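Re: your question about Ubiquitin-like protease family profile domain-containing protein

S., sorry for the slow reply, the queue was backed up all week. Below is exactly what I fed in.
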Amino acid sequence: MAPWWTNLKKLFREHDLEKNGEYVPGEPFLTEYELKNVSPRCRDLHSYYLQVFQRQQGINLSIEHHHFHHSDGALSITVPWSDLWNLYNLKELNASLMRCWTLHLIKIFEEEEFPIGFMDPHWMSGQSIEADRNKSRNYVADALAAHTQRGKEMIIVAYYSVEYDHCIMIAIFPSENSVSYLDSTQGNNWSNVAEFIDEAWSLARDKKGLESGNPKLSHDFEGMCLRKQTMLVECDMKKIRNQLCDFLMEELDASSSELVTSKLEECSLASSMSE
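Result:
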């Protein structure tokens, strides 16, 4: 019989406390030990990845126009496997995952019929603003006008800062002409973001049909009051991982169901034409 410490060494080897922090194509996201401690849907998504990674670059999703109010209408995005590796290892929420997280929140708030709108975090990221400020400003102005015209009382967007390598939640309250910044670290300077939002607000009022009695916004950098904070979800990475895995599996299940339905309709049509 092997000594008791043999199993202990195996446990630590599986847990791999000093594993290399990089995604390797085709390799598991987590060790067997770690996979036992995630949700069932996280394990399902991990199994799906191992089955299809050679045929797909990632998970493909469709974003409908009303989700983010893009002027180009609906669009498709891909969540790369490397981004999912980051999610499983609680590293960071990359741009594609931020979009998925936002779509997950949209689904929740639509079901509850809360008057809350969301903007595409891709065009509100520090990287996108630096790369093409005009395009980002135009998108934000379009989204502000569209959400306000639809009676949204709060417009939420996740903002990723390249400078701080940090993500915050920004909540815009059109009827109150105010903006609140929910920063878990506190102390960071978000005046450059406030300036950009002011530019988009002015553009929305002047050229996009946004109706507002006040041309200027007030910015609260000290965090939202308790009433407004409770309307946002808790930013716990393990919870986010579980919820994102749930969301992605639901999207995959829905896509599979639509494919089956389409195939059945094609067979039915072919059968009727041959009669």
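Residues 125 and 160 are 5 Å apart (CA to CA). The chain has a mean pLDDT of 79.

Happy to talk it through on Thursday.
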